[in-house]
Each structure stands twice: as C-alpha cells, then as structure tokens.
Amino acid sequence: MTVTDQQEGQQHRPRIWAIGGGKGGVGKSVIASGLAMSLAARGERCILFDADLGGANLHTFVGMPNPQRTISDLFRRAAATLDDILLPTPFPNLSLISGARAQLDMANPAWLQKVKLIRQLTILPADHIFIDLGAGSSFNMLDFFLAAQNGLLVLMPTPTAIENTYHFLKASYYRRLRSVIRHLEAEDLVDAALATKVQNGVRSPRELLLDLQQRDPQVAQRLQRAMARFTPKLVVNQVQRSEDRELGAKMVIACRDFFGIDMGEPALIRNDERVLVALKSRRPVLEMFPGGPFAEDIRRLLALMLPAKEASHGQR
Amino acid sequence: MDRDDLQRSYALLGLTSDANLREVETAYRQLRELFDEASLATYSLLDYADRQEKLESLQIAFDVITQSRICPLPQDEPPVTSDTGTVCDPRTTPGLHLQQHRERLGLSLQDVAERTKIGIYHLRNIEAQNCDKLPANVYLRGFVREFARTVSVEDVDAVVDGFMAISRQPTESN
Fold first, then answer.
1. Which of A63, A110, A134, B66 is deepest in the core (most CB within 10 A)?
2. What pLDDT does A227 receive?
3. For residue B14, is it within any domain?
4. What is the pLDDT of residue B83?
C-alpha cells in the first residue's frame, strides 16, 4: 500500500480501468493483463475482470488454464457475489474474475444484473480493477466502459481497427451524453438544436454544444463540463513505422475537433515479437520478458495514466 | 465578412489571431491532410458529405484569414498588435503584396513563371514567404525584382527590402 492510499483511509475505493476499443484481436487482453501484473508487482492489489463473456480467455494470459470459479457461477446463482468468485493467481497481489464457461445467453446479462455487477465491482477489496472488454460496441461493453475512471481504447494502426474504435468512441460518447442530458432534463433543448441541425451546420458533438451555447448558456456549460470528463486514452498497439507513431496524435486532434474532448497524449505500444513467444508458451509477457519493449511501453502507459502517483513515488 | 467570422476562422484552424501567416498556412495544410479522403487517422469518423463540408469550411477559414491580412478590417478598437495597420505594406508582408498585385492582373503563378523564367517552386515560396525555402539572397533579390516588375508593383524596392528583412540568411554585405 502506498502512502496516499493510507491517507485516503480504509474506505478507499478501487480505481476502475476498462480496456475496450471495439475491434477483436488488437491486444486488449494482453495489455490489460500487462497493466495489472505491472502494478501488482509494485505492491498494488489488482483484480483482472474478464468481461468478454462468450469469448473469455483472460485466464490464459495469467497462466491459469482452468479457473475453478467463474462468472457463470454468479449467473446461475452458484455464487452470491463477485467476491465469492475472486481467484488468486500465481502472482502476488493479483486476482482474477474469470469469464470462462459463461454461456452465450449470459453474454448479454440483463440490465439489473449489470448494474449489480458494476456496483459490486466498486466495493471489491483492491486498489485497481482492470475490466477486459470484449469486441463490439454493445450496451454492456459501453456501460462497463463508462463506469470506469480510466477508459483505454486499444487499436492497431489498421483501417478496420480505426473504424471500430471510432464506432466505439461515438457510441460511448453518445450514451454518456444522453444520460447527462436526461440528468439535466435538457431533452427539449437538445431536440430543438438537433431539429435545426442542417441549417446551423451541426455535424458533430462539438458543434452541437456550440449551438446549445447560443440557446441556453447555463445548461450548455453544465453539459460541456460533464462531457469534458469523458477522456478515454488512445492506445495504439503494434506500432512499427513512423506513420503508426503519428496516427495516435492525429486521431487525438481529429477527436478534439469532432467531439470537443481532449484525450491527451496517446500511448504507443511497440510491436514486440516476444509477446507472441510468451503467449505460445502460455506465460505472461511481463514475467518472461520484463525488460522487453512491451513491458517498457506498459510501464510508460501506466505513467501516463497515473502521473501524480508516479511523481509521488519518485519524491518519497 | 465580420469580426466574428474571422475569430471563428482562426478557431477552426486551432489558432488565435496573433498567428503569423506561416502558422496559418501550416495549420491549414495539416488539417486538410487530416480530413482528406485518403487520411487513415479520420477513416470512418466522418461520412462523405460531412468530410466535404469540413474541407470546405477549412478552405473558407483559410481564405477569410488571408483576405483579412490583405485588406484589414476597419478597426473600431485600437490595434492589438503593432503591425495591424500596416499589413498592406510591401515591406512587412511583401509576399502578400506580390500575390495581391498578381491576382489583380488575373495572372496565375504559371503565367508569371513563363514571363519571368523563374521556377514556379521559387515563385510559390516567395509569395508564401516560406523563409526556410527561399533561394540564397543573391538570387532572391533578382527573383523578387523580376516578379514585382511583372505584376506591376509600384514600389519594387520596398518589396525587395521587405524580403531582405525577412530572409533569415546573412545578407551579402555581412
């Protein structure tokens, strides 16, 4: 436990990370497990939560081929709470909530079940919880993503991954926007703005907020403030060439222009053959190659996401 | 065109009104590239119509800003920057001065290139005041003089002096 954690007292809640991005096979699970292992090795209590129901395999990334308890036990009421299905991993400070053996109809848990899940997550005994989301932009994925303090959007520098990333980003942005609008009871105002969409040239969320500014500066300001907190981090995986390196920065500019949000510096993860080598031997990359480029870039990503903590570690 | 249009144009390019012409051009070029049909970074973010509209709005913003630099808006307040009142001056913005005269005569850069036998690459850089791409001063002086005469600039020496002042290379006398 770090000094800051003790200062926050016993009632401190875990920081929730969601690793999404819409496209399958871009490295969400390997990045989620890398982040968790890296922080666990520093003494932070970490939980990996495999939310890729129907395609769960996060256990394999932490060297647990056959998880004893999984979320399917929760859904068929063999376990009462998330706490009951928490599994220790071979690594200190690292636990797993496996999504294995979940039936296909469990891939879309009912709304109430999902709300309960999210509420239980926030009271688990941990410093960090990493939710590994599956592919796609279903409401379930979006709601887990929006519940997290640290949302990561993982993509590879390919048109298909970029397309899915923008789709995921738009879907989660609008889902958040809709709930904020409902909360502010500003539905009529927004409807009016959208009705005159064409003549006012409203093409993007940023332009919508500008238009609302003219109609009701007070509501617009509150809306803007709420949406300014929506700042997922772009993580470009398998970076090889200089164009790949620039891609993230360009997407951040495009998103600032389109959504009016500032996602900050994108994280880059270099292409590293060792990841495949580790995966084939079913051992975590960070355990097998702790000094490799992948491990290095995971640590850099952590520093980007936890700047204050990094600084305080250095000072103390 | 009013002052709000101008403010919006700067904002659209991610700039404030104290940006110099090179910054305006760079921002415009980068954003055009970012929202180009072939750009990977904005692939699928905008549909075809929105993308075209976006590109057009960038073009309009660029035009509004460059126009305002040639013919500054009437000032109701004291100028914010010291050179606001003298933007038409051939010494301060000699590139725009040349462009203004060339356009007034309805000449393209290609026309000027044919008449002066100066490469269009140099002519374009001279008009855009691309300091780091200008030829050596000894050539620059002659090029600018030819260019200015061809587009009927009244005070040729002023334009030449203007370029010598912005050119970052040491002058011959040094």
1. A134
2. 93
3. yes
4. 41
Q: What is the 3-state secondary structure (H, E, C) of chain B?
A: CCHHHHHHHHHHCCCCCCCCHHHHHHHHHHHHHHCCCCCCCCCCCCCHHHHHHHHHHHHHHHHHHHHHHHCCCCCCCCCCCCCHHHCCCCCCCHHHHHHHHHHHCCCCHHHHHHHHCCCHHHHHHHHCCCHHHCCCHHHHHHHHHHHHHHCCCCCHHHHHHHHHHHCCCCCCCC
Do B61 and B116 have their domain in common?
Answer: no
The answer on B101 and B63 residing in a single domain is no
B48 in the same domain as B13: yes
Q: What is the CATH number of the domain that holds B57?
A: 1.10.287
- Residue of A197, A258, A259, A263 for testing the chain B interface, max B β-carbons within 10 Å: A258
CATH number of residue B162's parent domain: 1.10.260.40
How sure is the predictor about A148, in pLDDT bands with cuts at 50, 70 and 90?
very high
List chain A residues with CB under 8 Å of B42.
Answer: 250-251, 254
In this structure, the answer to whether residues B66 and B98 fall within a common structural domain is: no
Task: Give per-residue pLDDT as tens, A294-312.
Answer: 999 999 999 999 976 544 4
pTM here is 0.74
Residues B105 and B152 in one domain: yes
Instruction: Give the per-residue pLDDT at A136.
Output: 84
Number of domains in chain B: 2
Q: What is the residue range of B9's domain?
A: 3-70
- Is residue B76 one of the residues assigned to a domain? no
Q: Are residues B99 and B160 in the same domain?
A: yes
User: Per residue in B116-167, pLDDT tens?
Assistant: 888 888 899 899 888 777 888 888 899 999 999 989 898 899 999 988 887 7
Residue of chain B minimizing CA distance to A207: B12
> Does the residue B152 lie in any domain?
yes
Q: Is B35 on the interface with A (CB under 8 A)?
A: yes
* Residue type at position B12: L
B36 contact residues in A (CB cutoff 8 A): none
pLDDT (tens digit, 9 = 90+) per residue, B24-37? Answer: 999 999 999 999 99
